[in-house]
Design a protein that fits this description.
There is one protein chain. It contains five helices and 24 strands. With 438 residues, the protein is an alpha+beta fold. The strands form five sheets. Strands 1, 18, 19, 20, 23 and 24 form a six-stranded mixed sheet that branches. It has a six-stranded antiparallel beta barrel with strand order 3-12-15-14-13-16. It has a four-stranded antiparallel sheet with strand order 2-17-22-21, with no helix packed on it. It is elongated and about 155 Å long. The C terminus is likely disordered.
Length: 438
């Protein structure tokens, strides 16, 4: 009897022994961990293209001319000859102050001038007569001197009367306030019938010239020194820029605009750095025929630094950040992930980011699936391509294009494989399945 079971014969004992051996071998078998396959990510070789480096700053637009229209003579305002906010041509009469008093002063000055001119004619005739008599010894020298003095006094009175007439005409001209240049006129500040100019100049409105228009911005002392260093490498100096101002382009963009759609030229660079602020003031001028730019707007300013140079470009979405700064995940020739710190340049209009240092033209970077890649681990590479794509425009009718850095649109779609669970050995009687390790 074996285990409470009656066994008869040698054959029965052999069967029991084989069954016990099978059970023993099944209990000693263990489940083994099968690692998941490498994650699949999209990898592309960095793109190298000629890129122009820009100095990106901020500034404000300003009117070339902005003048307050003031009443310089006293009187009641009789006419306003424009509509608030309207554009006025140079010389257009905008305001009229009562003219009766000033017209009368002009007439009075004319009459006084005529009287003085008549006195001058009489004094001239008397002097000439006394001069002839003096030559014939019929007039004394004292009489001749008196005639000469009277003549000279009459000449001076005529000159004084002419000046008074001119002053009266000027005051009469001040009763008409004209536009000094082409521009937009603000809302009037005084109404018809108001007494103006009684205690000094009275502001009536402001006229602003909108075309062309200025943009003012400043360079920090560090930026000035860097520019000076770059110019020195080219054999130039900051003073040489003054001669080249008409050839230095500048671009600006408003807050609601994409990129820098407005192009102009630099027309002024301050001759010295402000010691209090440590900045250098620069000004650009822009043609503004359609009045898109208004004075006082915030503007993003971009000034090119030199000529285009070969530059490494990568998708901006492939960049991550840590305590050391920006980095990208690179892939070696044996498909092992690495982490490379880089120095960023400017973001291009096509969505690619310039890299100033850290990457070579032969480096491969992960552009899709970065969350599945760990530095030091192997990956399953799916070859992609970095492409430059124009900025997306959402017009509400077409889907937006994919961002730069993904494979071309005509490439076949490939699903990213999911990580399967680790397989387990078949369950056997008396065995406990092993739990896969993470």
């Amino acid at each position: 009897m074996v285990g409470g079971i009656r066994v008869s014969g040698r054959l029965g004992y052999a069967s029991v022994a084989l069954g016990a051996a099978f059970l023993l071998s099944a209990c000693e078998e263990k489940n083994t961990y099968v690692p998941p396959p490498p994650p699949k990510v999209t990898v592309a070789t960095v793109l190298e293209q000629p890129v122009t480096r820009f100095l990106e700053l901020t500034g404000n637009t300003a009117a070339i001319n902005s003048v307050d229209l003031n009443a310089r003579v006293q009187g009641f305002l009789t006419n306003i000859n424009y509509k608030d906010g309207a554009f006025a041509k140079k010389g257009t009469t905008l305001f009229v102050i009562e003219q009766d008093t000033y017209i009368a002063q002009v007439d009075q000055a004319k009459a006084q001038l005529a009287a003085n001119q008549a006195s001058q004619v009489q004094a001239e005739a008397e002097y000439n007569r006394q001069a002839q008599l003096a030559k014939q010894d019929f007039a004394s020298q004292a009489t001749l001197d008196q005639a000469r003095a009277k003549r000279d006094s009459a000449v001076a009175e005529v000159a004084n009367a002419q000046a008074s007439l001119q002053l009266a005409q000027i005051n009469l001209g001040y009763t008409q306030v004209n536009a000094p240049f082409d521009g937009a006129v603000t809302a009037h500040l005084q109404d018809v019938g108001a007494l103006v100019g009684y205690s000094g100049p009275t502001k009536l409105a402001t006229i602003v010239q909108l075309n062309p228009i200025w943009v003012w911005f400043t360079l920090s002392e560090q930026e000035v020194l860097r520019i000076k260093e770059q110019l020195a490498k080219q054999g130039r100096s900051l003073t040489s820029l003054t001669r080249d101002l008409p050839d230095i382009p500048i671009e600006i963009g408003l807050q609601t605009e994409t990129g820098y759609p407005h192009a102009g030229r630099i027309d002024y660079i301050a001759p010295q750095v402000d010691p209090n602020l440590g900045t250098l003031t620069v000004r650009g001028i822009f043609q503004n025929d359609d009045f898109v730019l208004l004075p006082g707007l915030f503007a993003r300013v971009r000034v090119p630094l030199g000529h285009p140079a070969p530059t490494v470009l990568i998708p901006d979405s492939s960049i991550s950040y840590n305590q050391l700064g920006p980095y990208v995940l690179t892939v070696s020739s044996d498909n092992v992930v690495g982490q490379t710190q880089i120095t960023l340049g400017q973001l291009q209009a096509d969505g690619l980011r310039a890299v100033l240092s850290g990457l070579k033209t032969t480096d491969r970077v992960i552009i899709n699936g970065m969350q599945r890649a760990v530095p030091g681990s192997k990956i399953d590479v799916e070859v992609g391509k970095i492409v430059a794509i124009a900025p997306p425009v959402d017009d509400g009718t077409k889907p937006l294009p994919k961002p730069a850095g993904v494979a071309p649109a005509n490439a076949p779609a490939r699903a990213v494989p999911s990580v399967p669970p680790a397989p387990t050995a078949p369950a056997t009687p008396g065995a406990t399945p092993a739990t896969p390790k993470n």
